[in-house]
């Protein structure tokens, strides 16, 4: 199964509960990569196929204090001759 | 005939609104540009007409003055163009007004710049006496730069004024360097590493975070909306390359990509040495946050490299963003401004580029403040 990576953003009111929210996400099946304390974000992944990904994402998004769950994107250097 | 500004100096609305237009008309002066709320008008007349007008006003006990109309010009002059590298400075440093920083003794001392990129060539002789903190957020790779791009960007923002050889190429040589490797040796990386790098920069209280990276997607990526806002709230300004997806010579203006298209993240376009927008430099999106905010040198930019190559000339909005980051450090050093206020200072100090479109260059060419 493909590994899907996610960025979970926590709202301003729940920043003090960041670690416990990370634990709840982990219990829901997310392998937590990093808990970003200054940003109030949690990055992680799950081995899950594309069909199940939407449901999984909804589960993460329904966690109390979570404002958004986004798929991780890829970026490149912005030099003109790549 | 000349143009005169006529002022009815009366606190009585009746005089300004009724008597004044009547007096003007009596003497054949137009009321088309008379503003009754102010009691001020602009009229075309010859000197004799004005003298007669003035004398009738005096007879009726109205205090009136008139002066020839002046023409006003914007204070900022368009900057010079046609720059080239000299023995002393790269063209880019000349264009942003580095001599002003030199005269004022501003080097960015005491300011921390995080450059989130492909790492740093820590063995480069131009950085041997510098305070460098390097970290890698790429699994399986250390903080060293095996690509070159990261070292080039760090060089532009933080490099020396008097390097071992070649022209001075760094905007703010007194800054403390934080090199976060968020792109691997192949020049690519993901949100996971980039957000970790931003978080690390905030933990280290870096006032400026420079990101010469992007994805060619129009959609705003939500994590950077929050990240940009929280960075500003923490006193850190994120400066990002607007993107290189234009091909203007073929009629394609491109668009500002992620994460530069997020509100709270400053998007920087690239200029050439004639201060024209670069062929590849992306144009503003109509959505909030999707604007190009500023422009800076980004074509044939000489800076440090990695491996056996001590320096290289590169082009891209990647090269423009670190010029702005370096200027931000100089402003931060001299004024103590951070976050949103630092953003505003950068915008207000920019030199307008009258022959360029705002959607291509934003407020104009980033400048070291006078």
Automatic annotation (TrEMBL), chain A:
- Lineage, top-rank taxon, reads Bacteria
Q: What is this protein called?
A: Ketohydroxyglutarate aldolase
Q: What organism is recorded for this protein?
A: Nesterenkonia sedimenti
UniProtKB/TrEMBL annotation, chain B:
Task: Give start and end of each Peptidase S8/S53 domain.
Answer: 108-353
InterPro entries the record matches: Peptidase_S8/S53_dom (IPR000209), Peptidase_S8/S53_dom_sf (IPR036852), Peptidase_S8_Asp-AS (IPR023827), Peptidase_S8_Ser-AS (IPR023828), Peptidase_S8_subtilisin-like (IPR050131), Peptidase_S8_subtilisin-rel (IPR015500)
Query: Pfam families from the xrefs?
Result: Peptidase_S8
Name a GO molecular-function annotation.
serine-type endopeptidase activity
**UniProt keyword terms in alphabetical order:** Hydrolase, Protease, Serine protease
Active site feature: 117, 149, 318
Q: Coiled coil where?
A: none
Gene Ontology BP term (one): proteolysis
Family membership, please give it.
Belongs to the peptidase S8 family.
Q: What is this protein called?
A: S8 family serine peptidase
